[in-house]
Amino acid sequence: MSTPTASQELGAFLRAHRALLKPEDVGLPPTSRRRTPGLRREEVASLSGVSIAWYTWLEQGRVAASRQVLESVGRVLRLDDAELRHALRLAGYYEPEANATRGPVNGALQPVLDSWPTSPAALLDHNFDLVAWNAAWSAVLGEPSAVPADRRNLMWFMAADNHLRGVLRDADWEPLAMSVFQHFRAQAGMHPSDERIAELYSRLAADAPELSHWWNCYSVGELTTRVITVTPVDSEPIRISLSSLRPVDDPASLILLFTPASPDDGMRVSALVNRPLRSVGLARKAG
């Protein structure tokens, strides 16, 4: 099976969002006898100011769209800001990774991660693989090195790691996991031929088959700030606030930082980090 090109990914993305709309959503009279759900191609084309033939070719990945036309299509399809950015990236309208030749920054950033002794922090590469983390991350969320390298990925941890799912409060797990996946989807759209992405989807399908509807979804989003509750082993619940940062030297990477929401939460993290013979996460199952 060949890897889809960015233009094919864009076409699939537009088709998926076209299927979510009804005629009345875009000011058209409702009609019956539609063989498939959603707007027809000719309706999107007419509202976007392009020909039906050209729009068909766009969904088939056979033509390139200007930014202006793609923004017009995005308005018709009711794409939000994150979704429109994703569509524009798939069409090639994003800032190039000019700093990619500087090499990985994990070694340089390890001291930065370690400077947050009571805030779990990790560095992710553009595929969301964990390449560095601090002691607070290991103590609160589990030791990443206890998991085989091919699974050491934030997507896999959220979907298939029994330890992390046990630490997270039930009400927080699904919204956070879905947000991680939507952000990954937007990121992966810029690297459609990356073999690691295909490997991750294959691994997720094998290790978390009950979530297969997530892997086939075309929704995208941003990993925004939020407060979640975690309950590590032998600890009271801890409230931590998620932030995400991008290193200037490697903007494709991402730093995840979980800051204690209160001084008491910080004291609980500190107690976990400093307890003797810390073994949090070392007995976790790999899938």
What's the short version?
The chain is α+β, with helices and mostly antiparallel strands. It has two domains: 85 residues, 434 Repressor (Amino-terminal Domain), CATH 1.10.260.40; 170 residues, Beta-Lactamase (2-Layer Sandwich), CATH 3.30.450.180.
List keywords for this structure.
Beta-Lactamase; 434 Repressor (Amino-terminal Domain); 287 residues; alpha+beta; disordered C terminus; five-stranded antiparallel sheet; 2 domains; elongated
Going by helix content, strand content and strand pairing, the class is alpha+beta
CATH architecture of the largest domain: 2-Layer Sandwich
Q: Tell me what portion of residues adopts beta-strand conformation.
A: 5-15%
What profile does the largest beta sheet have? 5 strands, antiparallel
Helical proportion, percent range: 40-55%
Order of helices and strands: HHHHHHEEHHHHHHEEEH
